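pinned: reference chain
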Amino acid sequence: MFESELRQLFPTEERKVMAKKAQIYSAAIQLVKMKLDVWDNEFKLTSTHNPIHHVESRIKTPDSTAGKLRRLGLPVSIDLLEEHVLDLAGVRVVCRYIDDVYQIANLLKNSDLEVIRIRDYIREPKENGYRSYHIVLRVPVELSQTRPHVPVEVQIRTIAMDTWASLEHEILYKTKLQERAAKAASLKECADELARIDFRMQSLFQSGAPEEYDLEELALVE
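pinned: its structure tokens
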């Protein structure tokens, strides 16, 4: 799929450049995952609670990348891709509790990797109910002759947030246009309910006493 999309989107010479860049982005993902693996193993050995449930990764497909550029009103080119698409390489860290999300975020912010951008969609969810913590890092990749720095977006979220994001995409993708508004409203309600459950689960884990939360009044503390 990756090679066929490259053939459709780029001329021969640019295809070679894009394929090489994909290799660099893949290496950058592995470097971020290696850092997370070190922390994961450390938590397993030294702590009674591991904030990392599991880690996933992906490289955005050429077709998806081109679609993002078009939505921005830009032509499809490698130069614009590197300037405007910061999530071409992505790592997803799924945690059990909201506090775990901020613990991993702080570890990344205090690491040796440069932070390019932070978007906290937990404190400020998207209009559709999407919640997650996004941090874009600039990752140096040691090649034999060069040392390119490329962005890697790390999405950190709870199991509940990850479940909602996966199902929301599938549900709306298969929904007819005239039914989308109603389903989107129901999905927003589901997102808010899952957020309340997230906070209750965290409270149960910390103290054993469930609490009720008003999402509009809740103030999160890192």
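why pinned: The chain is about 50% helix and 20% strand. Helices lie at 2-9, 12-46, 62-71, 78-84, 98-109, 159-173, 180-207.
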